[in-house]
Amino acid sequence: MLSARDRRDRHPEEGVVAELQGFAVDKAFLTSHKGILLETELALTLIIFICFTASISAYMAAALLEFFITLAFLFLYATQYYQRFDRLNWPCLDFLRCVSAIIIFLVVSFAAVTSRDGAAIAAFVFGVILVSVFAYDAFKIYRTEMAPGASQGDQQ
């Protein structure tokens, strides 16, 4: 740990670089399959949030909540910050995030389409697309990280 005197004696540029080094973005992750899936989920959630804001503002909280949750996971994975929390089962948390988003967006999308408003219908269409993206992400997480016997069956 640096004392106050050590921080004061260093150049300001060194302190900023040392503090920002902990949150360096892994560009390889952002271009990986998982990174592209999270970015797609984030973009579609933002589009649905805008559609709900334009038509039925009662449903925009669900889209906004999922937007922030997906943004948090993208930040944690892109900065490799999730590795500092080794007691959490990250594949399980990510799987539960996808399953909860599927349920929320299915219910909200079908409830919004009953209003027959143009923006609500657009939110329904993007909601169905987003549900399929979340379902694909949940399938990939289950298949690669959580499938029983996936790695044990090969060793027998």
From TrEMBL:
Signal peptide: none
Classification via Pfam families: MARVEL
Domain (MARVEL) ranges: 29-146
Organism lineage string: Eukaryota, Metazoa, Chordata, Craniata, Vertebrata
InterPro entries, per database record: Marvel (IPR008253), MARVEL-CKLF_proteins (IPR050578)
Gene Ontology CC terms, in alphabetical order: membrane
Location(s) in or outside the cell: Membrane
Record keywords, A-Z: Membrane, Transmembrane, Transmembrane helix
Protein name according to UniProt: CKLF like MARVEL transmembrane domain containing 5
Organism: Pongo abelii
Membrane topology: Multi-pass membrane protein
Transmembrane portions of the chain: 42-61, 67-83, 95-113, 119-139
